[in-house]
């Protein structure tokens, strides 16, 4: 089980790093207007419009993998084994009495009515 959680965490981190890289590579919506007038769009690796579809689809797939890994880690992180007794506070012994603190007795005279500070 520990190997599975480690592998799932590795998949999540790798997908996050690759997704960040793909998002930074992509052009914004305003870059399409500049590419339409010939400002460097033809020199790209996938052509003027081919990179948008490829990068967008790859980003969507990686986002899906990232969210599935995150949900799986959240599920397995909160799942408790059957043999677990629950909380740490439930494991404390209830039979032990709490020691009472000694309270000083009030003076017999009227000195208790005089404020000290």
Record the SSE blueprint.
Elements: H1 2-25, H2 31-36, H3 50-78
Write up what this structure looks like.
The chain has a domain at 1-23 and 48-80. The mean pLDDT is 76. It is built from three helices and no strands. Helix 1 (2-25) runs antiparallel to helix 3 (50-78). The chain is mainly alpha-helical and 117 residues long.
Give descriptors for this structure.
mainly alpha; about 50% helix; single chain; about 120 residues; about 0% strand
Cα-based radius of gyration, to the nearest Å: 32 Å
Mean pLDDT: 76
**Percentage beta strand:** under 5%
Fraction of helical residues: 40-55%
Helix and strand element order? HHH
Low-pLDDT stretches are none
Number of strands: 0
Largest sheet: none
Identify the quaternary structure here: single chain
Class from secondary-structure proportions: mainly alpha
Number of helices: 3
Distance between the termini: 63 Å
| Coarse shape | elongated
Question: In short, what is this structure?
Answer:
The protein has 117 residues and is mostly helical. It is built from three helices and no strands.
């Amino acid at each position: 089980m520990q190997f599975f959680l480690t592998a799932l965490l590795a998949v999540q981190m790798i997908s996050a790093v690759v997704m960040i890289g793909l998002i930074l590579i992509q052009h914004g919506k305003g870059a399409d207007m500049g590419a339409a007038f010939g400002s460097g769009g033809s020199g790209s690796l996938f052509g003027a419009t081919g990179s948008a579809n490829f990068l967008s689809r790859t980003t969507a797939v990686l986002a899906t993998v990232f969210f599935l890994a995150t949900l799986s880690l959240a599920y397995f992180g909160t799942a408790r084994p059957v043999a677990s007794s629950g909380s740490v506070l439930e494991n404390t012994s209830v039979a032990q009495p709490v020691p009472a603190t000694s309270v000083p007795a009030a003076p017999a005279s009227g000195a208790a009515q005089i404020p000290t500070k």
